[in-house]
Design goal:
There is one protein chain. The chain is 40% helix and 17% strand. A hairpin with a 4-residue loop joins strand 3 and strand 4. It is globular. The strands form three sheets. Strands 2-5-8-1-9 form a five-stranded parallel beta sheet, with helices on one face. The chain has one domain: Rossmann fold, CATH 3.40.50.300. The two termini are 34 Å apart. By secondary structure, the protein is of the alpha/beta class.
Length: 247
Amino acid sequence: MSMTPEQARWFADTFDKLVQSVGQAVLGKNEIVRLVLTAMMAPGHVLLEDAPGTGKTSLARSIAATVQGTSTRIQFTPDLLPSDVTGVMIYDQNTKSFEFHKGPVFANVVLADEINRASPKTQSAMLEVMEEGRVTVDGVTHEVGNPFMVIATQNPIEQAGTYRLPEAQLDRFLMKTSIGYPDHASSVQILQGSALRDRSRQLSPRISLQAVNDMTQLASTVHVDPAVLEYVSRLMEETRLAPEVRV
C-alpha cells in the first residue's frame, strides 16, 4: 500500500515542524537536524564524528523533547561494563526475588558519547541492542521500545586509549556525519543567550511518540521505481568489485 497525497503532505509538514523545533535549540544546523531526523524515521542510528562542544548532547535532548520522548546519555569509558549499558538483575529484599533494573539504553534517544573509548565487549553489547532493539538478561528478553535511536559520537582528535569500531560494526549505523562548529551568526546568538545552559528544556513537544511510529510506517510505503532499484543494485555490485573499496 503506497502513501496517499494527504499522508505525504502531513508527513512533510510534520517533518518541517520537527526540524524548526529542534533548530531552536541546535542553532544554525538545520541540515544536520534534517539528516538525524531522517535517520529516526528510517529507522536507523547515527554516528557523529565531532570535537567536544559542538552540541551533540543538545541535539539528542532536543529531538527527544520535540517528540515527547525520553533521552539518556552514556559516557563510554574503558571501565564501562555491558551491564552498565543494558541493565542488571538486582535482588530485592522485600520480594525476595531478583528484579531487572533497566540500563540507560532504555530510552527513545540514546547519546552514546565517545563510544570508541569503551572496550570491544561493551561496544558489542551496545551495538547488539541497536541491531535487535531488545536486551536479553538471564534468558529474559526486554524490548527497548519504539521509537529507538542511538546517536553515537567519536572524537576525531584524541585517539589515544580508544578501541576503533570494526568495519562490520559500523554497519549498524545508517549514516555517519559531523555537526561541526556553528557559523558566525549562530555563535553570536549562542553568546547572547548564554544564560540558557540547555535550550532543549525550552522546547515543547510537537508530536507524540505514536505519531513518530506512524511516520516511520509511512516512510516504508514510499514507492520506488524499478529503474531506481536497478540502479542501486548495479551500484552496489560495482562497489563490491572496485579494488579501492575494502568492504
